[in-house]
Amino acid sequence: MEMIQDRSGFLVEKHEEHGDVFVSRALVRDLMFVRDPAVVYGINVTHWADFHKPDYIKTMWKPFLGNGLVPNDGESWKRQHKLILPGFHKKRVDAYASTMVDFTERMLDRWREGERRDIRLELNALALELVASTLFDIDIGKEDSKTIREAIGDVSEILVEDADKMVPRPDWWPTADNRRKKRAIAKIEDIIRRVHQERLTNRRDRGDLFSHMVFVEDEQGRMSDRQLRDEAMTLIFAGHETTAHALTWTWYLLAKNPDEVTKMREELDRVLRGRRIDVADLSNLPYLEMVVKESLRLLPSVWAYARQAQRDLVIEGYEIKEGQTITISHIAMGRNPKYYDEPDAFRPERWTRDFERSLPRGAYTPFAGGPRVCLGKQFAMMEMRMILATLVQRVEVTVPDGFEPDFVTELSMHPGERGMPTHVAFRPV
Length: 429
What we know:
CATH class: Mainly Alpha
Shape: globular
Distance between the termini: 50 Å
Radius of gyration: 21 Å
Structural class: alpha+beta
Number of domains: 1
Largest sheet: 5 strands, mixed
Helix content: 40-55%
């Protein structure tokens, strides 16, 4: 029960108590928990092909994401990864930067001085709109946006409930939740189907990622309709929620550390001189990047992930049995005092180039690592910086006095139903 109620806190506490690698018994299985950088590197890089997503993860995600990149493994994963990877080429991703600022400014234009907003909900809606625009080249209307948000909310709620069950309900059971899940998935599928048909009808790559996936091919031909559906579902879900929650936690950390906001603004004012940020500015804004990296260290939205061994092997002296599940905790790794002075403190300035070079391989992996590193890493890092810079330029970063959010660790870590309230106060232009 303790673990269910506060999974991230449990992992940090148990790693401090038992070390960087420990094994815990759960029913008939031995679960291994890891935050040792060398072991993490071995799992993610050296022996990456010997680890797959755990069976329970695949079962849980299959109705929603099918065989998309997130739950997929083996040769099927390799082909999908090879086909999709060029869609995240730096040139294509950089072209999205202006849109990220446009949509952030559009969000802020809806805000009014003195009103109360839930920054979590605002950033969630913004990230979803950006995924639709940049990855699918559609400016989703109010109704489509609402449909997707509500559908994803329904699916997420049910997935979380299933994840906490010792024996998840089969997808074919005629339960009310299963019917609700299927209706939600069908609504998103309908939007994907419309976009897919438009691309086929016009027969051209519009520069978005979905166009790339529709027309890219290898010796086996193009992706099937089912593959396109699965990857689109994956991009919609993975491409907005984790980034929105990461930005929400960054907002919270900045609100609690106003001196860091001042440092950010000094840098932004010096480089931008009052104009909006452009992708070419990012290389001249090191402190902005430090803030993002420190936030991902301290309060990562992807707080942990799991791998399952496909054979017996030994990594850094630790025996791992075939079928054993390993949990790698980002939040526990980021608070390891061996590598981070004052690990509980928000100190963006620690992220100098010298400091990064001093970290052992595997010590900082908010996007995982190795061949299975998150394909959207560069996209997410740019999105966070473009949005954050625009927000800090235009509004005060606040949470109510004395407010402390909940730390809900479900599919991603988020502040729960109470959200992340802020009082809107625009900065003088």
